[in-house]
Amino acid sequence: MQKQASSHKKAQIAVLAAMIAVTAFVLEGCREQAPAASAPAATPAAAPAALPAAARSKEQAMNALMALPELKAWSARLDKESGGKVRGALIEYDATPKVIDGKSYWQFSFVENGSDAAHRWESFLVAQSGDEILVDDDTSGKAKSLEQWRREDKPMERQSPGT
């Protein structure tokens, strides 16, 4: 029984490592892509009065997260301090969108991805429509706005997963 549990745990770790590797690959590709040319602005007369917000794909949600100054700084710090052995990455921690007040959010965690394990730094909720990003607060169990998170948690001062 012990051997079977050990094999199961190894399989889980292999799956997690594969997910992190794919995420890191996608993020690296996103960093190398040139920004898309912006579409010409619609004239006010041609725009309908109220358009629903465009749906955001998982890839767009990940790009929005990695564009946050905090995640850019964390990624750069991890890379620099480890000599490239540890990377910042995003993993989807639940494929089922979380619904808050009738709005659906993609669920991602920023992790410190080392050769032996991934350590979670923070979890985020990215709106599937619109541009809202929330921080999943482990202490209260409620989501915080980016502004509240920045004010209360001071993420730019963070040095490790537990701080």
Helical content (DSSP H or I, runs of 4+): 25-40%
Total of DSSP H or I helical runs spanning 4+ residues: 4
* Shape, principal axes of CA atoms: globular
Strand order of the largest sheet: 1-2-3-4-5
Instruction: Work out the number of β strands.
Output: 5
Structural class label: alpha+beta
Strand content: 25-35%
Secondary-structure element string: HHHEEEEEH
Mean pLDDT: 77
From the alpha carbons, calculate the radius of gyration and give it in angstroms. Answer: 18 Å
The profile of the biggest β sheet is:
5 strands, antiparallel
Unreliable stretches (pLDDT < 50, length at least 5) are 2-12, 14-19, 21-51
First-to-last CA distance: 37 Å
